[in-house]
Amino acid sequence: MTSTRRFSIARLFFSGMFLLQAQVRPPLAGDYSGVLGGALHIKLHLAAAPDGSLTGTLDSVDQGAMGIPCADIKVDGKGLSFRVPAVGATWKGVSSADGSLSGSWSQGSPMALNFTRDTFVAAEKPSLVDGIWLGAVDAGGVSLRAQLTVKSDRAGRELCTFDSLDQGAFGWECTDLAFNGNEFRFAVPKARGHWTGRLSEDNRALNGSWTRTGTFALNFSKQTAAAAGPPVSDAAMAPVNVAELQAVLDRDLAPARTQVFRTGALAEGTGVSVAIGVVQRGVRRVFTFGPAKADSIFEIGSVTKTFTGLLLARMVEKGVVKFDEPVRELLPPGTVAKPDGAEITLLDLAIQHSGLPRMPDNFHPADAQNPYADYRAPDLYRYIGSHGLAKSASPAFLYSNLGLGLLGQALANRAGMNYPELLHREISGPLGLKDTVVSLSADQQKRFIGGHDAEFGPAHAWDLDALAGAGAIRSTAGDMLTYLEAQLHPEKYTALASAIRQAHELRATAPPSMRIGLAWLYMEKDGFYWHNGGTGGYASYVFFDPKNDCAAVVLYNRTVGDGFADRLGMHIRQRLIGEAAVPLL
Predict the structure, then answer these.
(1) How far apart are CA 304 and CA 473, in angstroms?
(2) Are 244 and 262 in contact (CB under 8 A)?
(3) Which range is least confidently modeled, 4-8, 12-16, 22-26, 522-526?
(4) Are residues 321 and 189 part of one domain?
(5) Between vectors from CA 547 to CA 436 and to CA 497, what angle results, nearest 5°?
(6) How many domains is the chain built from?
(7) Does one domain contain both 493 and 547?
(8) Residue 575 lies inside a defined structural domain of this protein
(9) Do residues 565 and 302 make contact, with C-beta atoms less than 8 angstroms apart?
(10) Rounded to an integer, what distance in angstroms lies between the CA atom of residue 399 and that of residue 359?
(11) The CATH number of the domain where 399 resides is what?
(12) H or E stretch at 42
């Protein structure tokens, strides 16, 4: 499940520069590489300033994010640590005699993130192919720019990195480089392709071809500086009527459907697809790209949290619980001692201001492919019993799967049933959401589309037990569209109208420049509500915009990866209202 986010506040990494605030030993200056979670390649660049401090940037290569803003940078002997406030993350570690940095990245549950130093020493005399080279491929009417950065070291080895600029891919390493006479070749394993060609007589061009799912002419010309990546936004166009949206999406998604330089987010043959539901002033449409059908079922991940928030509103409305009721009172007797001062309430959990961490520290999955399946209510209660439920004077926003999972379990306890039963009784049943479930029937299992990991391999479905309220729901684009229509026009859904309005009431702040209702996040500047979600093989994004009377859901059967579902959801809203749109890379 993912932390809250929109494209301008990137999922994990932000563009920017940070300043190490303390004096740092000169050996820390340099370039480093690491891998987070076995999938995200991270580069750390530190440079010594005249006063002995360091400036630096942190890049998420796979996400095309060339920098991270950090705060509270501290150096203590061999120790180094910093925070990333926008995502509630920290890195803490130590430097080694060999120049490496060993440590961990934490957003609730620590993950190893170690850096090794780049020991490259440039050749005294550059090779003829050293430098920056820019070219482009015509992929079925879509022009995709490729950028090559080549350098040679003192041992005479050629090294290079490859950028697919228009698909947001940067710094992919080349292998099998060879430069003999005028012949030059290299492979790019991450793109699963290779290039062969010749250096021109004037040494200003590399002429040849790229081979991946076919062979394409790709000629490079030498540049004096690196080219910019994709535009910050696609140009605005007149507001698009939902009935005309299919043609716009066909055009805008074309780069994501090509496989020339990389397996695009929706490339044919990968099994990856997207189901999109859009409603505008009462007119509904469902679009699909790839193998998905209109009734395909996806995991919606953390969008589940908005259902859990609505469950709270429903039960408050019925007088079964109160917003300010301590969550302790909904747990089995003896689970946790009553704190001396203030304690965490049901509302605190729903608005992500409980102070509870992102995940419990006794979360140790037996199966990493299905990590939540064996975390059950007794495990949750043991953690709560040891951690306690005391509340600080003014807890800040902290996105917590634990918090919403605990809320779902507590509400189910009070109702005397499990979370799936409570969901059906209070929300999916009254709204007629027949495919919005936690456990699938035999028929639904046939329509449950397989998930994929970040590398487009098959991914196991996730089964949630004690933390079901944080991300257990599966649904279709059509069902989710009905759910969003109820958010836009609660008056049409009499049984839930009052509770829905309660769920939208803005009750606290959420950085940056957001507020939060009962799990729903609200963009103050633009005036719309949203949430996203992700599991090991799926990603989702939903929004509803009362001012413009429109809403959309994006369901994607690939893990959060590069944030494609989020960008597509925001892109759709921007097309509907006529704003410049987030690029679909």
Answers:
(1) 6
(2) no
(3) 12-16
(4) no
(5) 45
(6) 3
(7) yes
(8) no
(9) no
(10) 10
(11) 3.40.710.10
(12) strand 40-48
Q: Is residue 46 part of a domain?
A: yes
For 88-134, what is each residue's pLDDT tens digit? 678 888 888 778 889 988 865 678 899 888 777 788 899 999 999 99
Q: How far apart are CA 186 and CA 194, in angstroms?
A: 6
Q: What is the mean pLDDT of residues 278-300?
A: 97
Q: Which two tokens stand for residue 394?
A: 């003014």
Closest CA to 469 of 414, 535, 416, 423: 423
- Mean pLDDT score across all residues of the chain: 88
* 183-194 per-position pLDDT tens digit: 999 999 988 899
Same domain, residue pair 392 and 302: yes
Is there a domain that residue 557 lies in?
yes
What is the predicted pLDDT for the residue at 18? 24
Q: Global pTM?
A: 0.76
Which residue range forms the structural domain that includes residue 506?
A: 274-565
Could you say which of 53, 85, 117 is where a domain stops? Answer: 117
Q: In the predicted model, is pLDDT for residue 323 greater than 80?
A: yes
354 and 323 part of one domain? yes
Same domain for 110 and 24 = yes
* Amino acid present at 89: A
- Asked if pLDDT for residue 318 goes beyond 90, the answer is yes
Residue 573 lies in a domain: no
Structure tokens at 514: 């957001």
Q: Are residues 107 and 85 in the same domain?
A: yes
Q: What are phi and psi of 87, to 5 degrees?
A: -115, 10
| Coil vs helix vs strand at 427 | helix
- Specify the pLDDT at position 88: 65
Give the pLDDT score at 16. Answer: 24
Same domain as 94, residue 158: no
Are 525 and 513 a contacting pair, CB within 8 Å?
Answer: yes
Region for 235 from its dihedrals, namely left if φ exceeds 0, alpha if ψ lies in -120 to 50, beta otherwise: beta
